[in-house]
From TrEMBL:
InterPro entries cross-referenced by the UniProt entry: Dimeric_a/b-barrel (IPR011008), YdhR (IPR014910)
Alphabetically ordered keywords of this record: Monooxygenase, Oxidoreductase
Top-level taxonomic group: Bacteria
Name this polypeptide is given: Monooxygenase
Xref: PANTHER family: MONOOXYGENASE YDHR-RELATED, PTHR39169
Native species: Salinicoccus roseus
Pfam families: ydhR (PF08803)
Entry's Gene Ontology molecular function annotations: monooxygenase activity
Length: 101
């Protein structure tokens, strides 16, 4: 059953178009992660926060990605990463046009 991974952290930037251009290779590499289905990138330049909402095929896939991603972010100097994994209520989510099967 697919699960949702919510990640956020403090980040100085870049944001907007600069973020999109600077992180394009990273975005493409995420597509290759085991069990990855999709991601929505999140950013709040005013609060200096970024992150994403991901959907993975299994909880194990999400846990493995979160561990790897937290370590990768630490390499960029980002130490306080908030990550939460949730089950998805498919019935209600479909009612609200969620892109899930």
């Amino acid at each position: 059953m697919a699960v949702l991974l919510q990640v956020d952290f403090e980040m100085e930037g870049p944001f907007g178009t600069e973020m999109a251009e600077g992180f394009q290779d990273l975005a493409e590499s995420i597509n290759e992660e085991p069990g990855f289905l999709w991601k929505i990138w999140t950013e709040n330049a005013n609060e200096k926060e970024a992150g994403g909402i991901y959907v993975f095929e299994t909880k194990e896939d999400a846990e493995n990605y979160l561990k790897m991603h937290t370590e990768r972010l630490a390499g960029f100097g980002i130490k306080d990463v908030n990550g939460k994994i949730f089950e998805i209520n498919r019935q209600l989510s479909k009612t609200n046009n969620a892109p899930i099967e």
